[in-house]
């Protein structure tokens, strides 16, 4: 088990929420961390134009619309 340091103000919030929900501080912390990690994983799974821009290069210019038509027709 790891030891972590939590600021007093945050710890009081955790304690208050645990008391309201009738659970332990450990469970509240674990749920919060799990939720945050899930959110970060989901955001990394999303491909956006901004996340893709500049990641790929081509040796020569191309026309994506024309290439898509050729692929549909089995030309490439």
Oligomer, anyone? single chain
Summarize the amount of helix as a percent range.
55-70%
Q: Sketch the major β-sheet.
A: none
Helix count, per DSSP?
Answer: 4
Tell me what portion of residues adopts beta-strand conformation: under 5%
Radius of gyration, whole Å: 24 Å
Mean pLDDT, rounded to whole units?
88
Uncertain parts: none
Give a quick precis of the structure.
Helix content is 63%, strand content 0%. It has 76 residues and is mainly alpha-helical. The chain has one domain (8-72).
Describe this structure in words.
With 76 residues, this protein is mainly α. The protein has one domain (8-72). Helices cover 63% and strands 0% of the residues. The chain contains four helices and no strands. Helix 1 (8-21) crosses helix 2. It starts with 7 loop residues before the first helix and ends with a helix. The model has no long low-confidence stretch (mean pLDDT 88).
Write the SSE topology.
Blueprint (H helix, E strand, L loop, with lengths): L7 H14 L3 H21 L3 H4 L11 H9 L4
Which characteristics define this entry?
63% helix; rod-shaped; 76 residues; mainly alpha
